[in-house]
Amino acid sequence: MLRDAGSQTAAETGSPFAAGTKTGVKDKLRAKHQELAAGIRTPANYTVEQCLKDWLETLNTQAGSTVMGYWIMVRHRAGLLGTSSSSS
């Protein structure tokens, strides 16, 4: 299948809603809506750095070298972002 040079699938962009089927995406979105309705919220002092680290902990299907590259980028970006929380 040919695509535009800059286009990527949801899975390639790391979308939290990446799934193999439309039904899979709907199921993931429904679960996120249920979490929101249940009042699941991040703490007021939840930083971008902590969010990125939490995300990195979920990467259990990627190759080790891929995860290591992500860790390096997160360390670099977190240093540039500073320590301000998401509520600022």
Helix percent band: 40-55%
**Beta strand %:** under 5%
Distance between the termini: 44 Å
Q: What structural category characterises the helix and strand content? A: mainly alpha
What's the number of domains?
A: 2
Low-confidence blocks of residues:
none
Radius of gyration: 16 Å
Q: Tell me about the biggest sheet?
A: none
Q: Give the overall silhouette.
A: flat
Instruction: Write down the overall mean pLDDT.
Output: 74
Explain this structure:
This protein is mostly helical and 88 residues long. The protein has two domains: 1-41, no CATH class; 42-88, no CATH class. 55% of the residues lie in helices and 0% in strands. The protein has four helices and no strands. It has helices spanning 10-13, 22-37, 48-57, 64-81. It is flat, with a radius of gyration of 16 Å. The chain starts with 9 loop residues before the first helix and ends in a 7-residue tail after the last helix. The model has no long low-confidence stretch (mean pLDDT 74).
Keywords, separated by commas or semicolons:
88 residues; mainly alpha; 2 domains; 55% helix
Blueprint of the fold:
Elements: H1 10-13, H2 22-37, H3 48-57, H4 64-81
Helix pairs in contact: 3-4
